[in-house]
Predict the 3D structure of the following.
Amino acid sequence: MKVILGTLVFLMVYSHGICQGLYNRGATFSIAPQTIVTLPDSLLNTGTILNDGDLRISGAWINQGTYDATGTGKINFDSDLPQTINHNNQSFSKLVISGTGQKNFLANITIESELDLQSSVLKSANSAKIILLEGSVVMGGSDGSHVVGPVERHGLGNWIFPIGNGTTYLPVEMSAGTDEGDIATLSLHELSGGETLSGSPDLTELSSKRYWELVLSQGSLTNRKMTLPLSDEDIAADLNLLVVAGSDKATTDYVSLGQSDLMGDLTTGSITSKDPLSLRYYTVAATSGETDIEVFNGVSIIQDGKNDWMKVKNIELYPDNNVSIYNRWGDRVFSMDKYDNSQRNFRGESNVNGSNKLPAGTYFYSIDLGNGSPKATGYLQIK
């Protein structure tokens, strides 16, 4: 039986109704509290659905009208066959994903209160996102039930991104922030087609499996730290040498963000960064365990690809550093915070009182690591 509603307002109170499918053509369809409506087939809505009950659908959900989940309203996609969800970029209060059939969502879905991942995968099409508003909670989550696609989080609290690759649950967590306006989207990228990750020399191994992309839309992510899952990583290093690594490039220039917490092992564990988040891409890596800096104190004037900048080994481990260069008369000619050997380095040019190429000769460096240790000093040759 397929029910077609024209201008009828349908109200169910304290009951359980079953109909094969539903085409709500311009009408207002209301489901009262403690009412269960089961649809073994599809629902097409061009009117208004007011749901304060429990709507269970085993077919496609095509919402071209308005859906208003007031109060305790819940919708459950429960088929053992594939289901299409086209929610027209609207909100669900409580969304339940059950059954075993894959759920393909074609437009953004906003969760106001609760996302309950019981079974089956919720997969993005058309780059659609799951958007979890501030205060919304994630329940469940497993290898058999997670989001394949981007997840957006809002607000101050601790965040969980319940994402995976379709067969493995790979949730990412972030600690609470300080900006109530924080909005960020996280996506998982599985390495394929010979892709590899690379980074600074102190990173001896990087994940051969995957990396995550974090896009900040609003706010600052101040003080947030990231917890990445460890799932069948083939990194051979000691667990104590594992770190979260980050970069502003997808597959290159990764640097260590340290380790503040480690749980489990390389198959079923997780690792938390030491440093707050300021980059776009993140992965799991291992360091050599060496923490001492070493200055390679020769810089070439001709910039021929050899000794083009002053390399400071392991400087990336000290993000609060300052590097200063002085001429032989003691005048400071260069000063830079957050020296990283990559985007921020000394190439034989002054940056104090203007930018000028410095003449060949002997100079002196002073490096403050920003951790309270004594400054490292020595000489530098520009040739």
